[in-house]
Design a protein that fits this description.
alpha/beta, 8-stranded mixed β-sheet, two-stranded antiparallel ribbon, 12 helices
């Protein structure tokens, strides 16, 4: 029999929280103490809404999907990750029960998540960090199958390639293998993205960090304007991934409004706040509004309306893209 908390986690908080809802905590500064206070306030507010404390379940593990793909200057803030770990430890998880998942070893080292080449130390030495590009954390049974192999993207544009072809090598090129530790090894996992614009996807945030930055063979989508938004939505809707995706927690310490996903300090904004929601579509929609406002203020065009990522995701039941009347709920 499922407990309330099991249902809470397995349904990405949708069973316990009235959608659409975003909780917000203010950050005095961006230091460790500021993040720890804000994260604890958000966790407590979440538990109040759910009517039950977060506590270990059968697998006794939690995964944290961090973001480092924009490089130094625009990665999941280390004090945020440390604060989330501390909040989970206060709720019964041991240090070894909490693991991190990232994509690229070089960028994880550059952003401070892997041990420094100079000191050999890492702030997360007590936690496993799964580097997905090593290829060791995918399972051949778990993949997203797309009719868009790398070398056939240009051919697809001319409509001369048929997905009915049965070449085994082409079949493999269609597959993007999923990071199985998040949904096979953990009670639940928490998404910790950073926001930028994206020329193909419009907004690089909650949905993209959970999908294209969380699987193999996905760079083929980043220039595929017609298929990439649908691929993100379809991957995010995979039941096993979605059921264990508890919520998204994002810091607005630094976000970028043009030139993304590669970091450019000239086009970043900073706000002293944290947002938490079980609705990744709503978070992405709210941040897309901020991105567009910043772009227009600096003389750039808004993100194209023809990018339909949020529309596809909403159609698949991942959340709402309607932001009218939505105001973040204070955690305190």
């Amino acid at each position: 029999m499922f407990t309330t908390l099991t249902l809470l986690v397995a349904n990405g908080l949708r069973a316990a929280l009235p959608p659409p809802i975003v909780f917000e905590a203010k950050l005095g500064q961006f230091g460790p103490d500021d993040y720890e206070t804000a994260v604890e306030a958000l966790f407590a507010r979440l538990e109040l809404a759910a009517g039950r404390k977060i506590a270990p379940l059968a697998k006794h593990k939690v995964g944290l999907k961090i973001y480092a793909e924009s490089g130094p200057g625009l990665a999941t803030p280390i004090p945020l990750t440390q604060a989330v770990i501390a909040a989970l430890e206060r709720r019964g998880y041991a240090a070894g029960d909490i693991f991190l998942v990232g994509l690229n070893q070089r960028r994880l080292a550059q952003t401070g998540y892997l041990p420094s080449l100079i000191t050999g130390r890492s702030p997360f030495s007590e936690h496993k960090l799964y580097v997905l590009e090593s290829g060791r954390f995918y399972d051949p049974l778990w993949f997203y199958d797309s009719p868009l192999p790398n070398r056939f993207e240009p051919i697809l544009a001319t409509k001369t390639w048929s997905p009915a072809r049965t070449d085994p090598k082409l079949d493999e090129e269609r597959k993007s293998f999923l990071a199985t530790p998040l949904f096979l090894d953990a009670d639940f996992w928490i998404n910790l993205p950073v926001y930028t614009d994206h020329p193909t996807l419009g907004v690089n945030g909650a949905l993209v960090n959970a999908t294209l930055w969380n699987a193999s063979n996905t760079t083929r989508f980043f220039d595929a304007h017609n298929s990439a938004p649908a691929a993100v939505a379809e991957m995010a809707a995979i039941p096993e991934l979605r059921q264990t995706w508890a919520f998204t927690l994002v810091s607005l310490e630094r976000w970028q409004f043009i030139g993304g996903p590669w970091f450019n300090s000239l086009y970043t904004r900073s706000e002293p706040r944290l947002w938490l929601s079980a609705d990744p579509v709503l978070l992405d929609a709210l941040m897309l509004e901020k991105i567009n406002l910043a772009r227009v203020a600096d003389g750039f065009k808004p993100v194209s309306d023809e990018i339909r990522l949020l529309e596809f995701a909403a159609t698949l039941g991942l959340g709402t893209r309607k932001t009218a009347g939505v105001k973040p709920v204070p955690a305190e």
